Amino acid sequence: MGFRDADRHTFYAGSPQLSADSSGSYESIDPSNGKPICKINNSSPKSIDAAIQSAQKAFPEWSSKPPIERARILQRAVALLREHNDNLARIETFDTGKPYSETSAVDIVTGADVLEYFANLVASGGLNGESFRLRPSASVYTSKEPLGVCAGIGAWNYPIQIALWKSAPCLAAGNCMVYKPSEFTPLHAEYLADVYRQAGVPDGVFNVVYGSGEVGAYLTKHPAIAKVSFTGQVSTGKKVAGAAAGEMKYVTMELGGKSPLVVLPDAEVDQAVDVAMMANFYSTGQVCTNGTRVFVPRVMKKSFESALLEKVKFVRPGDLFDMDTNFGPLSSKVHQDKVIRYIHHGIEQDKATLLCGGVEPPVNLPAGLKSGYWVQPTVFTDCKDDMTIVKEEIFGPVMTILTYDTIDEAITRANATELGLAAGVVGRDIDRCHDTIARLQAGITWVNTWGESPAEMAVGGWKQSGVGVENGRRGLEAWVRNKSTLVEMGGSVPTVFAKL
Ligand code: NDP
Fold first, then answer.
1. 15-16 and 10-12: which strand pairing?
2. What is the pLDDT of residues 94-113, one digit of tens each?
3. CA gap 399, 421 in Å, rounded
4. Torsion sign over Cα 427, 432, 433, 437
5. Whose C-alpha lies nearest to ligand 1, atom 9?
6. How much is the pTM?
7. Strand ordering across the sheet containing 227-231
8. Which of 3-12, 274-283, 490-499 is the most confident on average?
9. For residue 393, which atom of ligand 1 is closest to its CA?
10. Residues carrying an active site annotation
11. Which atom of ligand 1 is nearest to the CA of 239?
């Protein structure tokens, strides 16, 4: 697929704007081989202002459409996303380095599902308020009002999915959005804007600005932005939430994690290893909810490790468009360097035992891919809770195995972190699984599986892993504000200003 050096700069009022107003440019890189794909122009403050103004202009008409009409338009976008799934998946593969076997089955599919879910939800009364009789002469009704112009700021690991998880409830609720993709994975944004335009979303309802953190910071502080929905690192999230709080803006924060997977003593070893593999190596470990701290009963350690070593052989890096490839490179050079630094640290400073993997790229990569940002699936064992590789989010394919003696001990240690994004258990006794889940401090949890996040399921982190949720019914509430109205119908108006 050829990508033009288009004026990827700012999209508003339904079309790309010319790059005359851009502030510099950067290259988008194919992570599988390190080669440039195309040039992106940064949005200047002037063009960000123009995108926001375009959204402000579109807001009155879009927000006053009956929800069922907005839903009808968004359903057309769902159909277009599904029709163009393979093409969009190819773009995501070029941009992120994720194998096509993943992007064609997950990234657009789960984004389109969420758009369908929120379109259906608003069409079927999801934005209805409530009414009740307060007393014979008075009643109260509530309404859910859109917030206005909202900012979406995305991370690079699931670009189009993140863009859809933000824009779907935002637009369905009647808001307009100015969206900034990560500078590392910007390609999807133009195509998503085009899908919305073709579906009939009016000009200015969905706008795109490009650039680095400065562009995100500009959006966050802009007085016309009512809400910031952010996905990214905890440290950036704190800056964004802090800046938004200064202007009393609404926020949703989807941040990082260091999630525990507790393998219970009665777990079937093969199943536990399958879950651990999904929780660590899917998307080359670049998943916020990854279960990177794997707590294994001491008596199971040996069998778990030998089954794991067997299954790691099924990880197949290679040509990203070969459907047998199930493991890609990391998404950028800077991220590859970071992950390799952590692996070095695990070996040299933490002195954990390296069970497999390491700092070298996978062997047998095709010649054309050797310059890409590859690492091997890496497993450390004999890990201790205070090791850096156990405490900090690496966001790569690096699993740490921690042994435990009692379930109480495993739960206490699993919770001993400032993060609380996800958690999971594997076990046969379902009562014990539920009990363990109930005691784990995390917002997204799984029993005997890992990673599935359907549209119906609200997801969001506890503790420093986030504020608010995305998806599910509660995900829509994050894009509206409440108005309560008390109506007096002919009774006496309570007043202290009556004549004496
Ligand atoms: P970053 O925090 O580095 O960046 C996220 C976005 O914020 C990017 O678009 C970035 O721009 C932008 N940004 C950077 N600085 C600012 C600022 N001061 N104000 C506003 N925006 C800013 O995260 P990554 O892109 O590295 O993403 C990986 C992280 O995202 C991991 O920690 C992961 O756990 C988390 N994540 C969380 C998810 C969740 O649902 N909880 C889901 C997916 C990822 P740019 O990069 O272009 O400079």
1. antiparallel
2. 999 999 999 999 999 999 99
3. 17
4. negative
5. 182
6. 0.96
7. 15-16, 10-12, 206-209, 176-180, 149-153, 227-231, 250-254, 466-467
8. 274-283
9. 32
10. 166, 254, 288, 470
11. 18
